[in-house]
Specification:
- By secondary structure, the chain is an alpha+beta fold.
- It has a single domain, classed as Alpha-Beta Plaits (2-Layer Sandwich).
- 18% of the residues lie in helices and 32% in strands.
- The radius of gyration is 13 Å and the shape is globular.
- The two termini are 21 Å apart.
- It comes from Methanobrevibacter millerae.
- This is HIRAN domain-containing protein.
Length: 120
């Protein structure tokens, strides 16, 4: 998967999980949620041991400048893709989308959260 802008903003974690489930370096799964009644381009975030923990920001009020909105990302992957938490400050969490090469590299590590997140 190739992305010109490789960063996304996470929102909704206060209501779903709280920020404490995220750390720098946490691998997360992004999955489409087309039946979301508020946003037909909703992409939710799943974290190992927690499940659904946040969403990709999709509003001009919540997308941090320089990151990709959920709407821009939605058509760039099939059902799911992966990212890594890179920045956390106060109420802002930013993740970097993982390339196919990085995902394949993580699959080689039996300790990686990617196994759980892929449902294997």
């Amino acid at each position: 998967m190739r992305h010109k802008n490789k960063y996304i903003t996470l929102v909704g974690f206060k209501n779903l999980s709280g920020p404490q489930v995220f750390d720098i370096g946490t691998i997360i799964k992004l999955a489409k949620e087309p039946k979301n009644k508020y946003d037909t381009e909703a992409i939710y975030i799943e974290v190992r041991h927690v499940g659904k923990a946040a969403y990709v920001a999709n509003s001009v009020y919540t997308v941090v400048k320089g990151t990709m909105s959920g709407g821009r990302l939605y058509d760039k992957f099939d059902e799911e893709t992966f990212a890594e938490i890179r920045f956390m400050k106060d109420d802002v969490i930013i993740a970097k989308l993982l390339s196919d090469n990085k995902i394949n590299q993580l699959k080689k590590d039996p300790e990686s959260d990617i196994f759980y997140l892929m449902g294997e």
